[in-house]
Amino acid sequence: MPPPRTPGTALRQQLAELRGPGVPARALDARALAALAANPGCRRRAILDGAGVDKTALAGALGAPSAFGQSQFALTRGNAFEARVKADGGAELLRLVHQRLDPGAEPPHEAHVPDLTATGPEGRAARTALALREATAAGAWTLLDHPMLALDVAGSPAFLEPDAVVVHPDGAWTVVEIKSFPMLDGSADPAKVGAAARQAAVYVLALEEVAARCSPDGAPPPRVRHRVLLVCPKDFSNLPAASAVDVRKQRAVTARQLARLTRLQDIADLLPEGVCFSPELPAEQLTAAVEAVPAAYAPECLAACELAFHCRARSRAHGAVTALGRSVRAELGGLATVEDVLAAAHGEAGEADDPAVAALRRAALLRAEALRDHPRPAPARRTAAADDRQGAACR
Q1: Residue 383 gets which letter from DSSP?
Q2: Which tens digit of pLDDT belongs to each residue from 229-264?
Q3: pLDDT digits 0-9 by tens, 60-81
Q4: For helices 338-345 and 355-373, angle between their N-to-C axes, nearest 10 degrees
Q5: CA torsion angle for 148, 151, 152, 158 (degrees, to 10)?
Q6: Do 222 and 134 touch, CB atoms closer than 8 A?
Q7: Are 19 and 25 in contact (CB under 8 A)?
Q8: How would DSSP label each residue in 5-45?
Q9: Contact criterion met (CB below 8 Å) for 25 and 158
Q10: SS3 253
């Protein structure tokens, strides 16, 4: 049983207590952060991600495991491709950056690859900021391999690790995303490119915060390029191909959505005493803890959240119209449950001057007229002989 939280406890301590005693925090990566920004109204995901809870293990303990995530084969293939792209001091990667993003600059005959080793994520983030400042002042091609960036998310720092960041001779910074999906005839799957762009936009936001802190008083901060480099295997080979992707739209949307997130301190302070999300707790206690935090389920969560199956089952059990999609929920206005919708359609509830209620009643009237003019035929009765024939065919 976790110790009770005390008033005034620091946020980091509160989040550790919510995670469970002795449970290590799970890092919040850019993919998860982009998914969180896409659903800013979900306080459940915000507090679980902020506390570093392993949602995969949590979903399994709740009895609703999810197959969300990359396969081990895809991870291995991606790591092998990334190692090939960065071989020889990142010579091929820098050549692609020069070719696709900065052809007017001096070709990168050689590049500096600083050592970013440090203790803990805070130390690595500080070491990365120092390396970026030094590379900007040097005015030469510099490759930062897996730097660590810090981004404030709902009042708590999130540490992000892009594949690479390149500093140009003019001092500008570029995010590099390396993916294992193929680029066929110069183009890749638009859905996968869009997901990579949203992920890269998170890194751009984090780099902009670093740039703002690196600039002396009165001096303009280093420029963070809004065109990132997406590197993928060419066709079905292991050779790299690259494309420049403009992420200004994704960056603006992500920044706006992150600003709408409720602060983690406010969510944590509203939780009942003794709430803990440790997967080792009994299922009943764990379910009560999860249900203590409101969720904002939508079908899109199935592709982005490990708890989607659990939240979907709960949403359906309560008859929430959000289970039908955000667009349906938006059209129904103040009608939050299927029961409310049916009652409004049948004239049993709702104000007649409400546009949603008026549309539902009109639809119910049209449906009744259609069924009256074209009655549904009675289903044919099945005979025992037919059942026997079907059973024999199945056997």
Answers
A1: P
A2: 999 999 888 899 999 999 999 999 999 999 888 899
A3: 999 988 766 666 777 888 889 9
A4: 70
A5: -50
A6: no
A7: yes
A8: P-TT--HHHHHHHHH-TTPPPPP--HHHHHHHHH-TT-HHH
A9: no
A10: helix
